[in-house]
Structures are given as structure tokens and as C-alpha cells.
Amino acid sequence: MKEATIGFALCGSFCTFAKVIPNMKRLVDKGYNIIPIMSTSAYETDTRFGSAKSFRTSIEEICQNRIVHTIFEAEPIGPKKLLDALVIAPCTGNTLGKLANGISDTSVTLAAKAHLRNGRPVVVAVSTNDALSGSAGNIGKLMVTKNYYFVPMRQDDPVHKPTSIVADFDQIPSALDCALRGKQIQPMLIAPAS
């Protein structure tokens, strides 16, 4: 049996990269061939959480594959059936809105559109401060859309950021395994971390 090829797309929720990237490594260690994909902001932006170059270097070392970071590079994902599944982690509110409304103007959203044409799973790991406000409708829309699956998520700071939701990134491997079998991992909503 051939090893599964998984697209792993990162959007610009930079504060979560330190939790997301180790889970990319966990998937590699499980035997998946990981094709990294980054949005333009994730690929190019230096922040207080690290330099873009250091993130890119780390990701390419882990995956042993070049990062897909342009629309041009993402387009063949569909016609060539390059992926068995696509993980989007972190998935920002901006990307959630574009996915829910069929907008494919970034490398990540075009990768999703191209991949979905093959009827294969997209695993979404939400990270947005407006998940329970402006992005709530988009999350709901994707939850009832065929081939979308969610990594379990929680309010990360209910007192100071009551509308913010962040996925439990450590559950990415389990959520992916379920999605590859056509199942949504449960529970999807989990208690805030103590």
C-alpha cells in the first residue's frame, strides 16, 4: 500500500506555529508524505513569534518537500490528484470566510478548492479571535459541507477573549485518521484548558 500524501497548509495565526509545526513532524513520523503549503503572509512575514525564514527552513527540513506558496503551485493539486487529504492548521478567520464562500485567491484556499474536486477530506484546525462572533457563520457553513472535518477546538481564554477559539493541535493526527475514514472526530467542542 502506498503511503498517504497529506497537504499541510499554514495560515497566518503565527502565535500557534510553535504548537502546529511539531504536529506536522508527528505526521511525518507516522509515515505520511507531507506536502507543506503556506499562505503568503505565513510564508513571508516576520513576527515576534519568529522569522519567516526560520519557519520555512524548519518546515522544509521536517517534510523533506518544498513549500507550496503560490496560487500557480497550488493549482495542480486537484487535476493531478496529489493529496489524499489536506490539513489546514492554523486556519484563520479570513481563510474560514474564503473557504465557506468559495473564494480561492490564496495558495491555501486554491489548494483546498483544487483538492475538494477529488472528493477527498479537508481537515480544519481553527484559530481565530472571532470564532464565536464574525466567523461563527462560516464555521457552521463548513461543518455541514461535505468533505470538511474539524480538529477538536475550545475557547482559549473565555474571560479575556470570549469569542476566541483555538483547535487542540495535538489532536491533528487523530482528526486526520478519522477524516481519512470519512468520520468526524468527537467530541468536536472541548472544555477550555485549565
Feature tags:
194 residues, alpha/beta, Rossmann fold, seven-stranded mixed beta sheet, globular
State which percent range the strand residues make up.
15-25%
What is the CA–CA distance across the termini? 42 Å
Question: How many distinct helices?
Answer: 8
**CATH homologous group name:** Flavin prenyltransferase-like
Overall tally of domains: 1
CATH architectural name: 3-Layer(aba) Sandwich
- Helix % is 25-40%
What does this entry look like structurally?
It is a single chain. By secondary structure, this protein is α/β, with parallel strands linked by helices. The chain has one domain: Rossmann fold. 36% of the residues lie in helices and 18% in strands. The chain is built from eight helices and seven strands; from the N terminus they run E-H-E-H-H-H-E-H-H-E-H-E-E-E-H. Strands 1, 2, 3, 4, 5, 6 and 7 form a seven-stranded mixed β-sheet that branches. Helix 7 links the parallel strand 4 and strand 5. The longest helix has 13 residues. It starts with a strand and ends in a 14-residue tail after the last helix. The mean pLDDT is 97.
